[in-house]
Amino acid sequence: MTRIMPGTGVGSAAVVAPVHRLADRPIQPPPTRRKKSIEEEIVALEAAAKFVQELLQDRAASATGEIADILIALSAFAADPALLMAAKAEINNGWDSPTAISRAAKSFAQMLQSAGGAFAERAADLDEIALRITARLTGQEWSVELPTSGRFVLVAEDLTPADTSQINPKIVVGVITQKGGPTSHTSIICRQMGIAAVVGCIQALELNNGDVVLVDPVGDRVVVDGDLSDATEALPIVDPNVPTLIPVYGNIGNQKDAQGVIAMHGAGVGLFRTELLYLDAQTAPTIAEQRKIYESVFRELGTRPIVIRTLDAGSDKPLKFLNLADEENPALGVRGWRIAGPQPQVIFDQLTAIKQAADATGADVRVMAPMISIPQEAHAFAAMAREVGLKHIGIMIETPAIAFAVRDLAGHLDFVSIGTNDLAQYLFAADRQHNELVDFLDPWQPALLRTIKRICDDAARINIAVGVCGEAAADPLLAVVLAGIGVNSVSAAAPAIPGVRTRLAMADINQAKQAAELAMKASSPTQAKTLVKSLLS
Ligand code: PEP
Ligand code: MG
Per its Swiss-Prot or TrEMBL entry, what cofactor is needed (predicted)? Predict the structure, then answer.
């Protein structure tokens, strides 16, 4: 019998495949003094280390390429005599074996970090090894490996950007998470990779390995034992040459994504999230290293415009090499452009690399800064970008404060791009990663749409363009509403482009304006959507 589990769909193509459950990370117990004898603790530690080493070797033997290399390197760490010796010294100092291995790994990781370069990149591996040994010592199951062959739907409580960036979309064809909403990073990356996903699926963890599920993103649901014929139908795709009401650009994180945007007939790139390139970097990328990557992306675009965003580090996208202090409320802390306060050189170097790559390729490059709250920050960013010789300069509108200060940007900027994911998060005081708050974050919220209207009206007065690059732009019906409100372009992940183009090709400006009026006047997102749906269908 089929069973339906509601959630929030991401993408437009449904898939059917068996479940692969990703286990939760084991818990590192608090530091504990030894209760057993030194000998007993050492025997347990050696056995656990051996177990981890052999497990990783086995996995390496059945993997290929880069995955196999990583597993071999990890297994070597588990057998490292120096690491075990340091852990035994900690046992001698009175700690139990889980605490001892964690302390030893920490001090080794610090040594690797200070050695810098390739050594520093191995520090994170040590954490993983210590946690694996701890899991074994404390009897916790942990299998975070992604499948290396077959076709699966990955089921997890949630995925970090680092987890999702490891996914091979040929093998992981679907994702179901218990947490997350339409604007969480799991959604963004799945949309980017063309993986069908249902996030915020409260019952996700009731699924077991081997269950066969239909991931039905258009229907916002998972159907256990469902068939592809049960999937909700998406819109037919319009001819790429048919003009759209406003241009549809693509959101990217790397060169491959840029190819995807072109394949889907995006008019260019409206958001290049550069921080995604450096999530695992232990040391700051040099100007030359950055320039090389940016050049490769710019070349893909030819003469199409590309908006590149400076590092949006901090909060849910921590960049290790910035060594930012831990914060109580990272979403309200030092993130985005705010890192230019303590570390201006990082942004200056990035802008320099962007300018060099733009000159080398002749691409139509525009730059923007994330997480701006007050006009003075926008002015400072524009001055820095001009100093390196960049000409087309904008900012993201992601905080309510700057949404109501657009007129103060006159004379400094050429465009603004609305990040509806963060704008909704800050407008509704609702964490975008929190699965119980997804209703607040619905991009159809009338208060969000009215805020966008205010931004568009003020931007029109000072004669600057407005784009939307948050996930609101990936909803075809909502894209029409945005065009009616006065937005000049939208930008969405490549797989969403055809659906958005289709809707924008079908509507005219009067219809769009009518749709915008209905949506802004509505008293709830559901009412807004229902009214617009019946107007446009
Ligand atoms: C946004 O906040 O809407 C946005 C596009 O930025 P990100 O999702 O990368 O925070
Ligand atoms: Mg944002």
Answer: Mg(2+)
Ligand with the closest atom to the CA of 251: 1
Which of 192, 372, 469 is the best mutation target for the ligand 1 pocket, counting ligand atoms within 8 Å of the beta carbon and taking the most?
469
H/E run at residue 250: strand 248-252
**One-letter-per-residue 3-state SS of 338-361:** HHHCCCHHHHHHHHHHHHHHHHHH
Q: Catalogue the active-site residues.
A: 185, 469
Nearest CA to ligand 1 atom 6: 419
317 DSSP β-pair partners = 314
Rounded distance from Cα 398 to ligand 2 centre (Å):
6
Helices and strands, number each (H, E), in the chain: 19, 16
What's the sign of the alpha-carbon dihedral 400, 404, 408, 413?
A: positive
Distance 41 CA to ligand 2 centre (A): 47
Distance 406 CA to ligand 2 centre (A): 17
Which regions of the chain are under pLDDT 50?
none
Q: Which residues contact ligand 1 via a Cβ below 6 A? A: 188, 271, 273, 312, 398, 419-422, 469-470
- Phi/psi region, residue 11 (left: phi>0; alpha: psi -120 to 50; beta: rest), is left
How far are the Cα atoms of 19, 79, 93, 140, 253 from residue 130, in angstroms, in the given order?
28, 11, 18, 13, 31
Tokens of 300: 């893909």
3-state secondary structure 62-79: CCCHHHHHHHHHHHHHHC
The end-to-end CA distance of the chain, in Å, is: 33
Distance CA 91, CA 34 (A): 7
Full set of structural domains in the chain with CATH: 3-23+144-230 (3.50.30.10), 38-138 (1.10.274.10), 248-536 (3.20.20.60)
pLDDT of residue 463: 98
Q: CB–CB of 291/363 below 8 Å?
A: no
Q: How far apart are CA 491 and CA 252, in angstroms?
A: 10
Q: Degrees (nearest 5) of the Cα angle 470, 489, 175?
A: 35
